[in-house]
Amino acid sequence: MQSDFLPISYHFDDDLTLYAISDLHIGSPEHQEGRWKEFRAKLASEPNSRIVIVGDMINNATRSSVSNVFEETVRPREQKRLLAEQLSEIRDKILCVTGGNHEARAGKDADDAPLYDVCAKLDIEDIYRDNAAFLFLRMGDNRTNGNRNPTYSVCCTHSTGGGIYTGAAVNRNERFGMMIDGLDVLITGHVHKGILTKPQKLVINPQHNKVLAKDFTVVSATPWMDYGGYALRKMLTPASTTLQTITFKRKEKRVEVTW
Questions:
Q1: Cβ neighbours of residue 160 closer than 8 Å, sequence gap 6 or more
Q2: pLDDT value at position 254?
Q3: How many degrees, rounded to 5, is the angle at CA 191 between CA 186 and CA 193?
Q4: Which of 13, 20, 122, 143 is the most buried (most CB within 10 A)?
Q5: What confidence score (pLDDT) does residue 68 get?
Q6: Which residues make beta-bridge pairs with 26?
């Protein structure tokens, strides 16, 4: 497997539309199978759209997990097979894949990495990362002006911690983003809440004798699950499942996020 700190680079000639896919939970009774199928068809029809995958794509209940193995709609190995089959339709649209806590169960119990296996099946294991993926998105002609032909630095990771309070997720994500020098966009999942924040960090530039406040964008991806089951039992709040659209502009360095 590739090191988490080995960046993945891409070049795009036009504005890039990016969707963050997280918390699909294939195998859960609440998984939105129909909506996921419709999205794959939509994605295939959009030439300038790509996705990043940030974990919990399969529910992967085990006897030692919080999820109840007897409530799964299909067994874990079938979840993995279904995911590989579905992603094969949009294989060329995937920029990176990172694992989530549901996939990590297999690593703890059986030294298995389900999402790596899926990527290997699709021959894209070079863009799989266990914990976090760092992307460089180079727009236009990167030999010329960096404002009109920008490069965006993106970190994709599943995230961690409880999902009860939105504020806790915001604080955790922004704190992590502050650690990454030069970051433009942080994409996470895990908490099943669509969240957008635009914090700033101070950047010291001794070469030009300046201290600047630099924006970065933090996106927490929405889930692909109906409300109920575990979330209802634990009294977690329901949240929108409307997918965010992240747009990276080609002719100026600007990131737009819409619902």
A1: 101, 172, 190
A2: 96
A3: 80
A4: 20
A5: 65
A6: 58
Pull the structure tokens for residue 142. 């990167």
Q: Which residues of 61-92 are buried (b: 16+ CB within 10 A; e: fewer)?
A: bbeebebeeeebebebeebbbbbbebbeebee
Work out the end-to-end distance of the chain between its first and last CA atoms, rounded to an integer number of angstroms.
Answer: 34
**Secondary structure (3-state) at 15:** coil
pLDDT of residue 143: 66
- Number of neighbours of residue 240 by Cβ within 10 angstroms: 12
Distance between CA atoms of 235 and 120, rounded to whole angstroms? 38
Residue 35 has, within 13 A of its CA and on its CB side, a CA count of: 15
7 alpha carbon, distance to own chain's centre: 15
Give the Cα separation of 167 and 181 in Å (integer).
Answer: 23
Other Cβ atoms less than 10 A from the Cβ of 179: the count is 10
Q: How much is the CA Rg of the chain, to the nearest whole Å?
A: 18
Instruction: Give 147's DSSP letter.
Output: T
Residue type, 125: E
Which tens digit of pLDDT belongs to each residue from 32-79?
999 999 999 999 999 999 999 999 999 987 666 566 676 788 998 999
Q: Running DSSP on this structure, what letter comes out for residue 111?
A: S
Around 108, how many Cα atoms within 13 Å sit in the side-chain half-sphere? 13
The type of residue at 256 is E
Give the helix ranges, DSSP H, for the chain: 33-44, 76-87, 101-110, 114-121, 166-178, 229-233
Q: String of b and e for 181-219 (b: at least 16 CB within 10 Å)?
A: eebbbbbbbbbbbbbebebebeeeeeeeeeeeeeebbbb
> What is the SS3 assignment for 122?
coil
Where the chain has pLDDT below 50, the residues are none
